[in-house]
């Protein structure tokens, strides 16, 4: 294999995505490449992916590498070499076999992840899954014990400028199939007009579908500047001690925001925010709900998520995966069949009662023409 193209480098894949152009070689540093990152790389139409970490470490069977392979995008792990210290964005490199060259110099040795290699790595990861599950459960219980104050009323929850009381709230999280699920519930959005909350990059999905987010909440690390400027209200997720790194970006954009100090994920506090501000119903899509989801986010447990869902469960509808329930596409042949079926009884009535039908028409004409 021989690929020659400009490179774009980023140690945070979700931030690199915005810089990539069609044909670029993406150089990332992403252990256990997850599904969302892989799909974003595919959408960017990269010619190859070079990972300076292990694309699948064996901790758990992550989905990212297989998704890239299925889309015929070559993915390599660096075996020897420090590409981040040698290359800059826009440098043109050449991949020949398992060697990366820049300006005729060999700068790194690669290992291409093929389907055969990936299957072996996944088999090893699946054997390790029970061990990871046990650790995950222990961590979840430990975190839940430490973070129980989150649902005991001992955490400051901001009062929203947006009116939420007695309304439906839709929370969009940048998770698996979140755009497909959003498309599937468009009729609900148009009919019920819920308050729209975007969790970081989930806000851009709302904007992409033609909706202005009422509230954007999160670390502010994956939402676009344009979306931040268009929304009604911004709430920055801060550490429990009040430190909010995301506020710097908001201030640089000359925008205003409130701070929500809390443990856990931004989607957790988005649900808690909606519940505490009086939401009648909370619909969440793209959320993270299982062990693989949380391991892909680099989290060892789901204590806060467990607690928040326990508290708001009576008002919560999880719409994750709703797009997988049915296929909304209607074939033209089905429509034609329905029309024909509907016309058959009409035709039968007309032809079986033909004399009466024409006599009725004649009577109507006489009354209309007055003769």
UniProtKB/TrEMBL annotation:
Entry-linked Gene3D superfamilies: Thiamin pyrophosphokinase, catalytic domain
A Pfam family matched in the record: SteA-like_C
Biological source species: Serpentinicella alkaliphila
Protein name per its UniProtKB record: Putative membrane-anchored protein
Keywords: ATP-binding, Kinase, Membrane, Nucleotide-binding, Transferase, Transmembrane, Transmembrane helix
GO molecular function annotations of the record: ATP binding; kinase activity; thiamine diphosphokinase activity
TM ranges: 334-358
Domain SteA-like C-terminal: 320-369
Biological process annotations from GO: thiamine diphosphate biosynthetic process
UniProt keyword Glycosyltransferase, yes or no: no
InterPro entries given in the database record: Put_SteA-like (IPR047795), SteA-like_C (IPR022215), TPK_catalytic (IPR007371), TPK_catalytic_sf (IPR036759)
Residues annotated as domain Thiamin pyrophosphokinase catalytic: 190-233
Keyword Lipid metabolism: no
């Amino acid at each position: 294999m021989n690929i020659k193209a400009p490179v774009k480098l980023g140690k945070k894949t979700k931030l690199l995505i915005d810089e990539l152009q069609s044909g670029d070689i993406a150089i990332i540093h992403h252990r256990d490449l997850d599904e969302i990152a892989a799909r974003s790389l595919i959408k960017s139409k990269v010619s190859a992916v070079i990972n300076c970490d292990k694309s699948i470490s064996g901790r758990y069977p992550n989905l990212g590498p297989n998704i890239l392979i299925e889309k015929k995008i070559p993915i390599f792990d660096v075996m020897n070499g420090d590409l981040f210290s040698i290359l800059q964005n826009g440098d043109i490199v050449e991949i020949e076999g398992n060697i990366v060259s820049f300006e005729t110099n060999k700068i790194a040795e690669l290992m291409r992840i093929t389907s055969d290699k990936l299957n072996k790595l996944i088999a090893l990861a699946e054997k390790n899954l029970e061990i990871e599950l046990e650790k995950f459960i222990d961590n979840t219980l430990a975190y839940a014990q430490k973070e129980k104050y989150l649902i005991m009323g001992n955490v400051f929850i901001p009062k929203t400028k947006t009116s939420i009381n007695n309304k439906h709230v839709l929370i969009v999280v940048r998770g698996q199939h979140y755009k497909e699920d959003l498309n599937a519930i468009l009729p609900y959005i148009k009919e019920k007009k819920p308050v729209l909350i975007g969790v970081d990059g989930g806000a851009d999905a709302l904007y992409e579908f033609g909706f202005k987010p009422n509230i954007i909440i999160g670390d502010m690390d994956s939402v676009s500047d344009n979306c931040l400027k268009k929304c009604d209200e911004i709430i920055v997720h801060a550490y429990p001690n009040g430190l909010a790194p995301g506020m710097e970006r908001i201030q640089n954009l000359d925008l205003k925001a409130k701070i929500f100090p809390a443990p856990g994920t931004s989607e957790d506090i988005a649900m808690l925010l909606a519940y505490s501000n009086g939401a009648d119903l909370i619909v969440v899509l793209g959320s993270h709900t299982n062990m693989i989801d949380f391991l892909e986010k680099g989290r060892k447990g789901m204590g806060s998520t467990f607690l928040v869902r326990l508290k708001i469960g009576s008002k919560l509808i999880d719409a994750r995966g709703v797009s997988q329930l049915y296929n909304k596409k209607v074939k033209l042949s089905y429509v034609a069949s329905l029309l024909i079926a509907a016309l058959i009884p009409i035709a039968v009535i007309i032809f079986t009662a033909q004399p009466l039908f024409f006599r009725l028409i004649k009577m109507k004409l006489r009354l209309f023409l007055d003769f």
